[in-house]
Amino acid sequence: MYRIHIMTLFPDVVGDMLCESILGRAQERGYIRVDCWQIRDFTVNKQRQVDDYPYGGGRGAVMQADPLYRCWDHICQEMGERLHTIYLSPAGRTFRQADARRLRDEYSQLILVCGHYEGIDERFIEECVDEEISLGDFVLTGGEIPAMAVADAVCRLVPGVLSDPSCYENESHWNGMLEAPQYSRPEVWHDRAVPPILLSGNHAKVDQWRRKQAIARTRDRRPDLYAQLDLSSKEDRKLLQELEEADHEI
Fold first, then answer.
1. In Å, how far from its chain's centre is CA 74?
2. pTM > 0.70
3. Which of 37, 41, 70, 160 has a C-alpha 20 to 30 A away from that of 76?
4. How many Cα atoms within 13 Å fall on the side-chain side of residue 177?
5. What is the rounded distance in angstroms from the CA atom of residue 12 to the CA atom of residue 62?
6. Which secondary-structure segment (H or E) carries 147?
7. Strand partners, 162
8. Is residue 149 classed as helix, strand or coil in its secondary structure?
9. CA 6 to CA 154: how far, in whole Å?
């Protein structure tokens, strides 16, 4: 079983979200387990205060190191080992699909720390955090949304959570490119028809079409990813030539 522990001020909200749909069924079947820990439960004051004014002045408040540490230490003690700990932070490295695969492969348990206010005391980060992760170059009011995103991205890769590895191996970012367009019934919708190749029943041709569409979509939408692709195979060179010819016809 793969386990994720989320340290948060809003455990009910986070827990409810991760107990629905695919992840909820996976928890019921014992493939994964997501535990949410209320940081306020580990305070030592009657007010259950977890934040205070920042040293040096400035607006807002900072989450104190001690409640965070007490919560973190309790989890590690209960699990019998020091767990790999991630702080969801706008100062962290941008999360990628490769990170989801790495976290699934290298660890059987994770602690995700959700900050709030102006952030958390740096001393807790120095002592307890192994890496900082960001969803992108923007700031949210708390770490719960990033924590749920990371938990979802990692847990769906755990064997048994999805019906077959092909469910995620053919998706965007798995092999460095974006996924080809998808279509469903009806065959014609608002005068827009499904590409005829997808109705042909020729699986080899369908796979080839999807590969070409994935290359084109990655080139047009994510040139940063496209620049890193290895398209040196004979099959890919042929697809690139077809794409060039199609561009010239426009």
1. 26
2. yes
3. 160
4. 21
5. 22
6. helix 144-155
7. 159
8. helix
9. 13
